[in-house]
Amino acid sequence: MIMKHHLISLCTFLSFALGASAQDLSGTKMDDRIGHGQDSLEVRQNMSLYMQYFKQQDYTEALEPWEVVFRKAPLSLIRVYTDGAWMYEQLIAKETDLEKKNEYFEKLMLIYNKRLENLDALNSFATPKTTSTKGNILCRQGWDYYYYCPEMDIEKAYKMFRSGIDDMGPNTEAFVLYGFIECSYNRYMADKENGEKRTEFVRDFLECNDICDNLLDQAKEFAETDSVKAMQVVNAYLPTKDKCNELFIQSEAADCEILERIYSVEIENHKEDLEYLDAVLKVLEWFGCKGSDTYFKTSDYVYAIHPTPRAAIAKANRLIEQKDEKGALRYMEEAIELEKSDKMKARYAHSIAKLYFEKKQYLKAHQWCKKSYGFDPTYGWAYLYDASCISRVPTTNQLDRSKQFNLAYDKIMRAKAVDPACTEAVNKVAWGYRENWYPRSEAFFKNLKEGVTITVLGEQTVLRFK
Predict the structure, then answer these.
(1) Contact indicator for 166, 135 with CB cutoff of 8 Å
(2) Tens digits of per-residue pLDDT, 399-428?
(3) Which of the pair, 287 or 402, is modelled with greater confidence?
(4) How far, in Å, CA of 46 to CA of 31, rounded?
(5) Is the whole-model pTM more than 0.70?
(6) For domain 340-436, is the CATH number 3.40.50.1110?
């Protein structure tokens, strides 16, 4: 009976160890996942031992007991994987013997592979905080490969990063993006004549920037309700964005002449690939190549397949060059209808406002500025531009004109309040708006009272004098 009991316990233990990836362990406790019997007792003893050494940061001594837990109870705790990865990272960093480094590194990679293999089972009992995804683990494995592999292969590192980021997308962690763009940069710099690597580096740069920008915008939106969380996001993603920009400038990977040479051929090979063509348009826009033949030809190909906001804007830009503002406005309005992002709608509406401004139709320009910051209330430049429009709307007398400058002043102050990036520009022009307020000496003789609420162009402001 004793022998039978041990056999049953051993079989139960092995079923956890060998059938890990197929198990649903929701609702279980660590003791349930370790099992019972002699083997489980050994696991508990070694788990206690390794955790003591881990707490003391004595990772060399922690390895042997940790290995027992990792091998015999792979589903006991998620921290067995995270602790193991941390220990091997530290040991690799300190080790000077190449053979030993390689030995540690192979074990580090094994930890990630085993965690991927057991991911579904591990997630079945994980908390929201400890739940992970395949992409998240691949990203971390790629990062560790890039920084800790003693004989790192840049192509392999790049592919590992890429597979993880493709899965994580806009949720990729900042430190992963930081490592990835550095890897992509070094890969390109080692083979600068390779057009494919250049194109991929440009794409990687834009992707990293987009992810950082989106998350920094989100941080701005919830800064008032959760300033601590917002600051954590800013502290993580702003340095990453700065790193992206720094490396891209150093790389000299793109100017309009180079991009024209690359994409003039590529778009002909992808003229029916909507995703590829729209990505090309984005690259050309980013680098200010909006007047090139390739830019316009790409937009035509995209628009013919399926009109997109970016293609509509490109067609508008061509018509602007041809002095056909009416046709350009039609495409710009279409871009707003097609666009899903309110932030991009705000930018397109701002562009329409600029067209009307150049035509000296200041009231219409003002109306489009209002639409712009209506789409995105944090878009400070639209408020700043609106001030210019309001101050130029034709009026018949000095008092009405000064009232418009009161409203315009409100707009520039709003620009600074919602978008700190506008602060310097606002400070430069603020005095000019104040100089156009109605003279206090004349207001006295007209019995005008400062501080009263007035209506200007359908909006309320406060009457102020200089």
Answers:
(1) yes
(2) 999 999 999 999 999 998 888 888 899 999
(3) 402
(4) 14
(5) no
(6) no
